[in-house]
Amino acid sequence: MMEYSFAAASISGCSPKEDARPLAHFHSDVWGDRFLNYISPPEDTQQERRQELKRLKEEVRKKLLAPTDDPKERIIYIDAIEQLGVAYHFEEEIEAILQQFYNKYSERDCLYKNDLHYVALTFRILRQHGFFMSSGKILLVEFILGG
């Protein structure tokens, strides 16, 4: 195998120096070598960020678990948390709230039946979390007929 590579080099008549590819001279990047020369922030800065993260997570958890008279607010808040992509931090709390909501929803027949956005949002969130919900034909007819 070694002879083959040597023979190929001698057939082409090029030495390794001549075989080098030409360099392209691209314009300098707007970012420079910012991402090539990354230096992590000092340990105290990282510690401050961790503390801030903990504080913010507890703040969201408190608001999520705070008692509220309006279940609509809580469903909208859960939707916002999921859209922001941080719901994985609060999976247990969200599941408990949705289970509680599902049990109450089943008892009441139709909660906020005059608000199509809320009915659709509730349907989507409960279905995404694995709760059985009717396809909404009855709810939609009640919404259209106004009652």
Automatic annotation (TrEMBL):
Record-linked Gene3D superfamilies: Terpene synthase, N-terminal domain (1.50.10.130)
Xref: InterPro entries: Terpene_synth_N, Terpene_synth_N_sf, Terpene_synthase-like, Terpenoid_cyclase/PrenylTrfase
GO BP, sorted A to Z: terpenoid biosynthetic process
A GO molecular-function descriptor: terpene synthase activity
Top-rank taxon: Eukaryota
Keywords in alphabetical order: Lyase
Domain called Terpene synthase N-terminal: residue spans: 30-135
Any Pfam family hit: Terpene_synth
Cofactor: Mg(2+)
Family annotation (PANTHER family): (-)-GERMACRENE D SYNTHASE, OS04G0344100 PROTEIN-RELATED
Protein name (Swiss-Prot/TrEMBL): Terpene synthase N-terminal domain-containing protein
Organism name: Opuntia streptacantha
